[in-house]
Design brief:
Homodimer. Its EC number is 6.1.1.21. By secondary structure, this protein is α+β, with helices and mostly antiparallel strands. The protein folds into two domains: 9-163 and 221-301, Bira Bifunctional Protein, Domain 2 (BirA Bifunctional Protein, domain 2, 2-Layer Sandwich), CATH 3.30.930.10; 312-402, Anticodon-binding domain (Rossmann fold, 3-Layer(aba) Sandwich). It contains 15 helices and 16 strands. The chain has helices at residues 9-28, 42-50, 54-59, 78-87, 131-147, 165-176, 185-190, 204-210, 222-237, 277-280, 295-301, 320-332, 346-355, 366-371, 392-402; strands spanning 32-33, 39-41, 61-64, 70-73, 97-105, 117-126, 153-158, 243-244, 258-263, 267-273, 288-294, 312-316, 337-339, 360-364, 373-378, 383-388. Helix 5 runs parallel beside helix 9 (222-237). The protein is elongated and about 90 Å long.
Length: 403
């Protein structure tokens, strides 16, 4: 299927490393993992993400279930986390810092960095208005990228709030209606409904036209500006470099005030503040801030060799019962073991042990079975010795600690 991709064993190690690194980092900042369904009511995304966004208008996998209700495979994580926060009354609990890892779905044209099923790691912090929390979200991203040896540029912007955006929307309409013929069909439809979305359009003609549009920074209210200035002050305190990009608006309608992206040649991670989302979804007036990163995009540029972690390979020359006995001994000693059950030549098995990066191969055949012995082969030095089974523990310690 177009846009859906298998993750094969040779790359799974990178996925595991990314997820484990992010999980450990987020939990070290007090975030707790939450898991929500991949299917939600369509209305959640229409209300939360925005019905004039590309995601809702063109990219969602939406269908009727057997009861006739419209449901959607989640295209992003924040709306579902916000719903769970409301429905499970988490505002009265200690769990106001949440993170998630999982698949998302968007019907986009498949290309490098864009799949129809993709995976995100994200985090949300609810109920804290302090700009230091926005900076902490960025700081978490910075530390994660450093741990993964990934370089990216931080771009930030202030996109205002429902109080100050109407005046800006009017200014955009006044500008774009004089350039309507230069806009794509989608942006022409959005012009009077949600002109801010034109600034996020990927069409080249729209991008060129948008360069001359009024800038939001000239319209933001005092509260938004104070919060944004506070975030910048916190980023300066953390020595985090950033570039202000006044064309950065994000593709989701729930954002308010501070937004950011970490960019290489494409956006790797992004997020910002959303102070009205919980209320818009029927909850109390609780603010929020968060981010989401694209796992596939990071994995594509992670410069880390994916290695197997098999320590010991059992080359079984037709004595499976004896090989199982040795496997049990080794597992009781907590070793990582690959046991071969398909009778092959010793040469082919040792080649496989090399490919698995095994440090030691234990070779057993009829002779070893009769004598209650095994051959321990040091794969790095190509040396080997015959030992009794009761010598396995001491022999392996000597071989493994010496390599």
């Amino acid at each position: 299927m177009k846009g859906f991709k298998d993750t094969l064993p040779d790359t799974v190690k990178k996925w595991q490393l990314l997820e484990e690194t992010a999980k450990n980092l987020l939990e070290s900042f007090g975030y707790s993992q939450i898991r929500t369904p991949i299917i939600e009511k369509t209305s959640l995304f229409e209300r939360g993400v925005g019905d004039a966004t590309d995601i809702v208008e063109k990219e969602m996998y939406t269908f009727l279930d057997k009861s006739g209700e419209s449901v959607t495979l989640r295209p992003e994580g924040t709306a579902g986390i916000a719903r769970a926060f409301i429905e499970n009354k988490l505002e009265t609990s200690i769990f106001n810092k949440l993170y998630y890892i999982g698949p998302m779905f968007r019907y986009e044209r498949p290309q490098k960095g864009r799949l129809r099923q993709f995976h995100q790691i994200g985090a949300e912090c609810f109920g804290i208005k302090n700009p230091a929390v926005d900076a902490e979200i960025v700081y978490i991203n910075k530390l994660l990228f450093e741990k993964l040896n990934i370089k990216a540029n931080l771009e930030i912007n202030n996109i205002g709030c429902p109080l100050c955006r109407p005046a800006y929307s009017k200014a955009l309409i006044d500008y774009f209606k004089n350039h309507e013929e230069s806009l794509c069909a989608d942006c022409q439809k959005r012009l009077y409904k949600n002109p801010l979305r034109i600034l996020d359009c990927k069409n080249e003609k729209c991008k060129i036209t948008a360069k001359g549009a009024p800038r939001l920074k000239d319209y933001v209210c005092e509260n938004c500006q104070n919060h944004y200035n506070g975030v910048k002050e916190c980023l300066d305190t953390l020595n985090i470099e950033y570039v202000e990009n006044d064309m950065l608006v994000r593709g989701l309608d729930y954002y308010t005030s501070f937004v950011f992206e970490l960019v290489d040649t494409i956006t790797l991670s992004a997020g910002g503040r959303y102070d009205n989302l919980i209320a818009d979804l029927g909850g109390n007036n609780i603010c929020g801030v968060g981010f989401a990163l694209g796992q596939e995009r990071l994995i594509d540029i992670m410069d880390i060799e994916s290695k197997n972690t098999i320590g010991i390979y059992i080359a079984n020359l037709g004595v499976s019962l004896y090989a199982l006995k040795i496997l049990q001994i080794l597992k009781d000693l907590s070793y990582n073991v690959y046991c071969e059950y398909d009778s092959k030549s010793l040469k082919s098995m040792l080649k496989k042990a090399d490919k698995l990066n095994a440090t030691v191969s234990i070779i057993v055949g009829e002779e070893e079975f009769k004598n209650n012995t095994c051959i321990v082969r040091n794969m790095k030095q190509s040396s080997q010795e015959i030992i009794k089974l009761n010598q396995i523990e001491s022999t392996l310690k000597g071989v493994l600690y010496a390599t």
